[in-house]
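Notes taken during the Thursday session

The instructor put the following on the board and asked us to keep it in front of us for the whole hour. The protein is Proteasome subunit beta. We were told not to look anything up and to reason only from what is written here. First, the residues (245 in total):
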Amino acid sequence: MNFTVSKQPENCLLGPESDSQRTLYPYVTGTSVVALKYKDGILMAADMGGSYGSTLRYKNVERMKPIGKHSLLGASGEISDFQEILRYLDDLILYDNMWDDGNSLGPKEVHNYLTRVMYNRRNKFNPLWNSLVLGGVKKGEKYLGTVSMIGVNFEDNHVATGFGNHLARPILRQDWHENLSFEDGVKLLEKCMRVLLYRDRSAINKLQIAKITEEGVTISQPYSLKTYWEFSAFANPAQGAVGTW
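Then, after some discussion, the predicted structure tokens were revealed:
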């Protein structure tokens, strides 16, 4: 009796279920987050748009969340990855609370944790497609930092992600000062968000402003800014620009 043994390809054991999947491009994304220190704590602003590609698909996406007792997190980028990061942080805060030792994680510790998470995922070539802003107050010390999707991180008196890094930071550098009141801080953030609304196609005129102090986190109800669209540059944006369409 003759038996025929068919030759299988070398990779026959690697079926579709063994493929390693990666997020090659973000699907639903949020745009800029802007934050600054003021005399009593941290102020942060973000709009509520969620863009599916270039389509503004969702208009009620909250992108700022309290973390533990002392921290506030804002995110731009992929919304589902932001939800995954929130799950990581829920586990972190739960583990910290289980010690029941009277201590709790401050904003510096949470920010350091996020820098390690983002850099670790980047090294696996499977990044979380977000830029994060983490602010907080603990024992009278204000903290504000940011971390990118590849783990680049720093602290500053004011930070911004996305388009805000190019359009809002120059305004903040010019107008921010250490003794900024709450009212002046809100006006400064609104000024930044208005510029982003004019210039960023993914921005929408529905935003929230959050503050964190020693007393805790407060996130405002959504509201809209007053805008003016009759500028001559808006009427004919290509006038005087050589080589435009």
